[in-house]
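As a warm-up, study this chain.
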Amino acid sequence: MSKAYILHENDAWVEPLRRELAAAGVPFEEWFLDTGILDLRRAPPAGVFYNRMSASSHTRGHRYAPEYAAAVLEWLERHGRTIVNGRRALQLEVSKVAQYQALAEFGVPTPDTLAVVGREQIREAAASLGYPLILKHNRAGKGLGVRLLLSEAALEEHLASDAFEASVDGITLVQRYIKAPLPFITRVEFVGGRFLYAVRVDTSQGFELCPADACQVDAAFCPAETPAAHRFEIVDGFDHRLLPRWEAFLAANDIGVAGIEFIADEAGRTYTYDVNTNTNYNPEAEARAGGALRGMGAIARHLGRLLRAEDAAGSAAA
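Now compare it with the structure written out below.
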């Protein structure tokens, strides 16, 4: 059997996948894409390539990891390799503007949003949209840069403070605040382009919603005072009218693995506001749900199936 190659820039986030791949007997190799040399004269090895590049890589000192990953994906696609989450998935991972435009093609509602370049222009965009509103980074991950502002005075105070930080790509999103009747959002997980499970996430302690173990032990990632076990709960019997549209969106954009986050307002209207193609899972929530639903386990099995199919095709061709 050929290998599965894991493209990433965060060891901690890959550790659960390592365990699942080993348990499933799937041979694999990791490509840590921070700095390196890509020899375009050579062909890549045979195998299946799983892209786990994150929009938040710059927060770990890996500023150009997504650009490096994009070059690697171009190279892999040029040589016809099997890729889970290819270059289009990476494009959507690092741009919420791109996400919202792609979701709109499938009739998936997103919050009213203005994309702004320049701190001074944020004031004009906010005046146009009205309050309350949310500022967030276009290229973020982990809820970076999210700030709820209730008034013009609050915006002015924020823009004048050291707390304001521009997105790494220079694009700040000014977005209509969606008021939910209860402080939670829902994250819907997909593996192999199909629904796996949904998890309810408590937002009462803030917007940084990374569910991974690594996020729970570092307050800079997820500054919740409540334990992780109280923040993430898998939803039993989840169903939603947007499931077919989300799956169609994933298929059209060559996304095999993703977590899609949505919020419902007081009238029950649903707004999708984030697509995470580098998704993580909360092991405590999975354990409380019985342990059969394991995101990383599902990914490992999916990669194993793709490897077996590729090896079978290679044998038939030979």
